[in-house]
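Exam prep: given the inputs below (a chain plus S-adenosylmethionine), describe the expected output before reading on.
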Amino acid sequence: MYNQELRPQKELVLCEDGSNTLFSKEFDEPYHSTKDGALHESLEKYVKPAFGIKKEFESLTILDICFGLGYNTFATLYYIKQNNLKTKVHILSPEFDEDLVRSLSTFSFPPEFGFLKPIIKAISENLFYEDEQFKIEILLGDARESVPKIEEQIDVIYQDAFSPTHNPLLWTKEFFADMAKISKTDTILTTYSTAASVRLGLYENGFYIFIHRAELMRYSTVASMKMLEGFEYVDMELKKVRNPTARSFRDEEIKIGK
Ligand SMILES: C[S@@+](CC[C@H](N)C(=O)[O-])C[C@H]1O[C@@H](n2cnc3c(N)ncnc32)[C@H](O)[C@@H]1O
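Solution:
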């Protein structure tokens, strides 16, 4: 059941894949692409490329930026169950909207997440869940403060903040530097953004850039600390020559409103 009183700054939106998302009045943006669909987008742009690359791993530590409705985290668990994987997963997810997370036990998630009800309830009550296979921690507060404090080494980053136009501080070269500091030599990052400024910020922090294509979906970006086989490589040096005015987002310029 959707409870408008719990989310006065948000409106429920039905996506084209039949899953629900919210529209944030504060950020003037939906939480997911309503065309691609919340569940479809999480699976195709985030979970499948990540698990395709990391399929041999027995355990994965994932940084999910930011938790929002939790689709990327829950789609990860759904994918693991669907594919009968034994992968142990530890998910760390910054989020500053505590009321939203606490309201998720009453959100109308798609039927695919039905088996996750006890986990969703635990997260909305305790902001934490743990069993033998999964550990999920909500890092309550500003991601710009919580990410530099992370002590774990991260295998996979889901970069799913509101767009650079509406939430630029979560897309800057400096924020990507904080992510690079907790990355391994083979960390991968998946994101819906294909913006040149975003890709440059990642590239300037040592990530190789690739295009990810999925069916019935706009293409997206996979970034990796090491060269990947089987993905369409984007030559950023060539991009810089062709687009000499493109620049990564910088904290300082955003703060002074440039
Ligand atoms: C696009 S939504 C994330 C959707 C989410 N990945 C999902 O699958 O449901 C962006 C989220 O970032 C959160 N957010 C925005 N700025 C933040 C910040 N500086 N620190 C922590 N959370 C932030 C918002 O509250 C919102 O829940």
